[in-house]
Amino acid sequence: MLNVKTLPVGELEANCFIVSDSEQNAVIIDPGSEAGYILDALRQNAVKPLAILLTHGHIDHFGAAAEVQRQTGVPIYVHPLDEPMLHSPQICLADSLGMADLFDEPEGEIHPIADGDVLKFTEELTFTVLHTPGHTPGGCCFRHEDILFSGDTLFRDGVGRVDFPGGNIRDMRASLYRLGALEGDCTVYCGHYGSTTLEHERTCGHYLTPRTFT
What we know:
Elements: E1 3-9, E2 14-20, E3 25-29, H1 35-44, E4 48-53, H2 59-62, H3 65-72, E5 76-78, E6 110-112, E7 118-120, E8 126-131, E9 140-144, E10 147-151, E11 154-155, E12 158-159, H4 169-180, E13 187-190, E14 196-197, H5 198-203
Parallel strand pairs: 3-4, 4-5, 5-6, 10-13
Antiparallel strand pairs: 1-2, 2-3, 7-8, 8-9, 9-10, 11-12, 13-14
């Protein structure tokens, strides 16, 4: 069973997750800012980082990735449609959101990911990639058994915006339908706010049903 530690970071309070296995190996999902805070959490929890996973390329979700990578030496995993955001303060919205000082271009190893990839870091620390465009072209969710990291695709009783450059309402609709059709239930760790479950979103919300955006 994986342990999930949630660290809300930055002025937009994006959720960074430290996900560790029983052997204290860990991945870091969406280190958006406050690299020192994230690195302290790694030390305090005595975990060994193996990778940085990015759900998408907006600045509030990767702003600390470069510094965390420098200090840990781990590779970054991101969809190739969003990788250009890691190299441009304009494309990643750092300039338009008033976060230009947060932009820090990663210089280390970057691995592309694609829909259906299985990222196996250890026997326990294994994730399936779901490409879920809509908020950004290369937005992805990461699933491990009954846990889903949804980035800014799905929130509790809400979804990510589609009015930023690269957003697409039709893609978002298809991505949400796909999440709604996943077999079984999942605890969903969202890119902002608290966690939810797929069952809650299916029964209490309306974003995962075919009437969404109609």
